[in-house]
Write a structure and sequence with these properties.
By secondary structure, the chain is of the alpha/beta class. The strands form 4 sheets. A 9-stranded mixed beta sheet has the order 9-17-10-16-11-15-14-13-12. A 3-stranded parallel beta sheet has the order 3-4-5, covered by helices on one side. Helix 3 runs parallel beside helix 4 and helix 7 packs antiparallel against helix 8. It is globular and about 75 Å long.
């Protein structure tokens, strides 16, 4: 991802994007904005793009250091940066902030649970909290809650350090849906722990499994309200960690899932509409670029007598070719970037059916280009051709592209588990266990730099925590 792939705002707009302005204002706290840079998951971040964002944060801190009482960060946790030794953009940013502000200024950070939290990163923070729910229906609530906790610390200054228990477990988001066990019980344990005034905050960090670095793995965080509460909070963290370890075999895929051929076959056999197949190995919401063509290839092979929409396939060259044509033109082109076997080109003969808008969701809808819908000859299969990774998960995006989701019997999207907004629209959905940049079978990822032994790659019975 380059800097052009981020939606960047400053000033009052950046404050608005925090969703916390009213909370701080009520307490008479002035917010000094730096930058809000929002980018969907789209592969590793170019170093120049990361440097631009980080330098803006650090320069704002330096400029206003004489005014600052605390720092509020909302960082995902899975930012992989090219040519950055530590890989993690979040780790690097926090480390540089501490060099400027010293050891004691309160720093709070909100994370996605699918970000990696290391004990060393926890040491540099006073407050760290992640969302409970996956899919993330509580994201805004968690951001606001963390803001309230930072205000508590600012108004009642005391030493505050998170307890981070790093477990040698790696699980993907699709194996840790919060409405299912064991995450449902883990969240109940976190909620129960926070009822005790000795526990300032508690969270369960699922982690991100596709960064081959030393920060990978599950983490439990419990923050003591006061230093005297640390022993009790250690016990709470231990109890939750042991539960996770003892129930690690329960982290499984939920709902319908199967190998690609069978997943497509089951979707075709479903008698009602609309059925959805997710291309989990090319999940645009988790780091995929949307380039895989394997699901289209399989659907063409099974030749269903049904109306099918592939939403969509990223191919800048094919996109550029279609930009030179008008609706109704017959087109002949290769679709597929050809970067590997998974994105191998498929020759398309068809008709340019519609030219719509590529709409990307980054807090709101942003039009970022044209979407071209091609009907493949002698089939009822439509393909949306785009030039950047767009995850089609909302009805507004389908309409912007120039089509209606429910006009189709089967829709293929680039997801793992279905997005919150898409679930109510589907009569049936199945996750295809495809290969690709967001492969769900972590056992098949060729890790080199992670802590070992790591479950489920390695067979180990006793829990031993990962330490710095």
């Amino acid at each position: 991802m380059g800097i052009e792939d981020f939606s960047i705002v400053y000033g009052d707009k950046a404050i608005e994007e925090t969703r916390t302005a009213d909370i701080f204002k009520e307490k008479g706290i002035e917010l000094i904005p730096s930058i809000n840079a929002t980018g969907g998951a789209g592969g590793m971040i170019e170093r120049s793009a990361f440097d631009f964002i980080e330098n803006k944060i650090l320069s704002t801190i330096k400029q206003h250091l004489h005014e600052l009482d605390g720092i509020f960060l909302h960082l995902h946790g899975a930012s992989g940066v090219l040519d950055l030794d530590c890989v993690s953009g979040e780790f690097h940013i926090v480390k540089q902030i501490r060099k400027i502000v010293g050891k004691y200024m309160p720093v709070a950070m909100v994370m996605d649970p699918h970000g990696n939290l290391s004990p060393e990163l926890g040491e540099m923070l006073n407050i760290v909290r992640c969302y409970r729910e996956s899919p993330h229906s509580d994201a805004v609530d968690t951001v606001r809650l963390t803001a309230e906790k930072l205000i508590d610390l600012l108004e009642n200054r005391r030493p505050m350090k998170p307890i981070v228990k790093k477990l040698p477990i790696m699980i993907g988001g699709e194996r840790s849906v919060s409405t299912k066990e064991p995450v449902r019980t883990i969240n109940k344990m976190l909620d129960e722990a926070e009822k005790d005034r000795r526990v300032f905050s508690a969270s369960f960090h699922v982690g991100y499994i596709r960064h081959d670095d030393d920060k990978l793995g599950v983490a439990v965080v419990v923050i003591p309200n006061e230093p005297k509460d640390r022993i009790y909070c250690e016990e709470v963290a231990e109890k939750i960690s042991e539960y996770i370890w003892n129930h690690r075999h329960e982290f499984k895929f939920t709902g319908n899932f199967d190998e690609l051929e069978e997943a497509v076959r089951k979707a075709i056999a479903f008698s009602k509409k609309t059925a959805v197949v997710t291309d989990s190995g090319d999940n645009c919401g988790a780091g995929g670029a949307g380039r895989n063509t394997v699901v289209l290839k399989e659907i063409l092979a099974q030749a269903p007598d049904k109306k099918v929409l592939i939403a969509g396939i990223t191919d800048p060259a094919a996109h550029s070719f279609l930009s030179e044509h008008q609706i109704g033109n017959h087109v002949s082109f290769d679709l597929g970037a050809g970067e590997d076997e998974l994105s191998a080109p498929i020759h398309i003969e068809g008709v340019l059916k519609q030219i719509g808008e590529e709409q990307h969701w980054v807090g709101d809808f942003q039009t970022v280009g044209n979407a071209y819908i091609v009907r493949i000859d002698d089939t009822r299969i439509d393909v949306i051709v785009i030039d950047r990774n767009i995850q089609y998960g909302m009805m507004e995006q389908f309409r912007a592209a120039g089509t209606e989701f429910h006009d189709y019997d089967i829709v293929v999207v680039k997801m793992g588990y279905l997005d919150t907004y898409l679930i109510p629209e589907t009569a049936y959905h199945i996750m295809a266990l495809t290969d690709g940049p967001t492969i769900q079978r972590s056992e098949r990822i060729p890790f080199k730099r992670i802590y070992r032994p790591m479950w489920p790659i390695d067979d180990l019975e006793e829990l031993e925590y990962i330490t710095n």
